[in-house]
Write a structure and sequence with these properties.
It contains 13 helices and 10 strands. Helix 2 links the parallel strand 1 and strand 2.
């Protein structure tokens, strides 16, 4: 299927909300990892989201120039071509973009999509993330308002992060402390500034103890039940029916989460869950295994010539793709999106 149109992407998110499941959002940094993500979604019979962070885009831009926009556009265009061979709908998303990178990443990408839409085409990306978690909430929401106006016009969905997620990702870091919990007051201020769909659709990355990267059990206390409090507070403030879920939530920093924590998040309106650390490891693990097992083949040791079949990147690249695809399938199962693809 082709990359999801704006209409299909909205339908995907609506179906997830109604069905109490979420889409894995898989970070990719190469054509290989893109194919691994697409393969995993296809084998799980799940639609999904593929995303590119600023660091990923810089890597994709090549180490000679490291241009984020070039890297993101190149992989997005590649995805538009190869995704047609996979029987699932895929949305393209740009991950965490802090304030100092907006002018070098999200805003130029928005301009490209605005030009496409003006010609009657679909946007290049289906959603963009503005990470204002390092700013004051007032400044965060002011920038979000400007971006939401543009994304709405370009038929794109905006993702906002209003309070910190702990840990570090692409140079943005926050301490693990009590600030990692969004309050109902934060949620109300967000709804007042960005509306509840009337000013454009957005996804909300609220904080409930989330931490990026790898952490051992006990280091962080996740409270996904907090999302219910945020929805209830906003529903009451804006006269929405009791039990309604005004927000489409995103689950960041989910590595190491328990099954119950994930299920509680799904029940409370999470429609997207970012997965990066686990898929990075899944991709690299079989490569390391191959190199260790075939040391004297991948290297020319003691004057020998090695073995072309073992150091051929296709040999270990296939192993990496298969392993990462399996982790994507697992994620679809955990988030209940397996078998839910739009026909």
């Amino acid at each position: 299927m082709p990359i999801a149109t704006p209409e299909v992407y909205n339908e995907m998110l609506d179906r997830a909300k109604a069905g109490k499941f979420a889409y894995p959002a898989i970070n990719v940094t190469s054509t290989q990892t893109l194919h691994a993500a697409l393969r995993g979604f296809a084998e799980a019979e799940s639609d999904g989201i593929v995303q590119i962070s600023t660091g990923g885009a810089e890597f994709l831009g090549g180490q000679y120039d490291k241009d984020m926009v070039t890297g993101a556009v190149a992989l997005a265009e590649f995805a538009h071509i190869v995704a047609e061979k996979y029987p699932v709908n895929i949305a393209l998303h740009t991950d965490h973009c802090p304030k100092d990178k907006l002018d070098g990443y999200v805003r130029p990408l928005l301009s490209i999509s605005e030009e496409r839409v003006s010609r009657g085409e679909n946007p290049l990306f289906q959603s963009h993330m503005w990470d204002g978690s390092a700013e004051t909430l007032a400044d965060n929401l002011k920038i979000a308002q400007e971006l939401l106006e543009r994304t709405r016009a370009a038929r794109i969905i905006l993702e906002v992060e209003i309070t910190p997620t702990g840990g570090e990702e692409d140079g943005v870091s926050h301490e693990i402390n009590d600030s990692l919990y969004t309050t109902p007051e934060d949620a109300i201020r967000t709804a007042e500034a960005l509306g509840l769909g009337d000013k454009g659709r957005y996804l909300l990355a609220a904080s409930f103890g989330n931490v990026h990267g790898v952490y051992k059990p006990g280091n962080v206390v996740l409270r996904p039940e907090l999302l219910k409090d945020l929805n209830e507070g906003v529903a009451a403030k804006f006269g929405r029916p009791a039990g309604s879920q005004p927000f489409d939530f995103v689950f960041h920093g989910g590595s190491g989460s328990t099954e119950q924590e994930i299920l509680t998040a799904l029940e409370n309106g999470v429609v997207k869950m970012n997965i990066d650390t686990d898929t990075q490891y899944a991709f690299t693990r079989p490569v390391a295994d191959h190199m260790f097992r075939n040391y004297d083949g991948v290297l020319k040791v003691d004057g020998e010539v090695g073995s072309k079949k073992t150091y051929d990147p296709r040999t270990w690249g296939k192993l990496a793709e298969t392993s990462m695809a399996k982790r994507v399938i697992e994620a679809c199962g955990n988030l209940r999106s397996s078998g839910t693809k739009i026909k």
